[in-house]
Amino acid sequence: MDLFSLRGRTAWITGGSYGIGFAIGCGLAEAGARIVFNDISGDIVDKGLSSYQEKGIPAKGYVCDVTDEPSVQALVKQIEQDAGPVDILVNNAGIIRRIPMAEMPAEEWRKVIDIDLTAPFICAKAVLPSMIRRGGGKIINICSMMSELGRETVSAYAAAKGGLKMLTRNIASEYGSRNIQCNGIGPGYIATPQTAPLREKGEDGGMHPFDRFIRGRTPAARWGTTDDLVGPAVFLASAASDFVNGHVLYVDGGILAYIGKQP
Ligand code: NAP
Ligand code: GCO
User: Model pTM?
Assistant: First the structure.
């Protein structure tokens, strides 16, 4: 099944020290890719390097804030020297702020848009010239249920992830002729540090109401794990998806297909 082989490819996962990015990095490594990742702090990068090492993956880690274009441009040059040109970019780094919109300071809004939407633009722009020169590449943007649905308190995040879906389609439209495939992965509700507050048990040890809600809203009746995202990521990073472009692959246990369990 060489269609799914990533041997000889260099994959850069932004925010890849833990969570979804780390799982995708491990999966792409298992398919043969060289892994490079960045995070915003040296401590987190070191944590990531140890985690990859424990898995026997010789990943390279770099400190870089993905919202800072000069730093990203410099990082891409450094990656090229250390591990070769980027063949696969996974725009994974992201944050969420859960604040009712009417109370959300514009500064918090801007921070979410900057990291979740502008940074994927900055990182994709940084790798496109080399991909074009070399005859192709893969860009995978980590979207969300909120690329399609809204909910209370996540206005900035939903706007960013909705925009990321359209950025995905636009990169596919503008660079598809250069054999660059840009697709999205739309994870459902995944058990990571980002969603930990939604799963915290109450003082009485009872299930968090949101935890119960999501289990009822998901046909699979469970939260996703980061490992659920590995197969879709390998598919979109490999030759198996060379004619798939501008698509968001939802890995949500069926949430988007389901009206929800009758109370
Ligand atoms: P996470 O556990 O919060 O990890 C996010 C990663 O991004 C962290 O390593 C974080 O580093 C890094 N990061 C944040 N801001 C950065 C910046 N400016 N520069 C570089 N790195 C930065 O999140 P996750 O749950 O794994 O989610 C990863 C992606 O999947 C995000 O885009 C998220 O929106 C998306 N997603 C998550 C879910 C879910 O249910 N968990 C579902 C759909 C989509 P620090 O630790 O240093 O901040
Ligand atoms: C939230 C959650 C979601 C998930 C994910 C769903 O507060 O609703 O954090 O936004 O992170 O994006 O796909």
Answer: 0.98
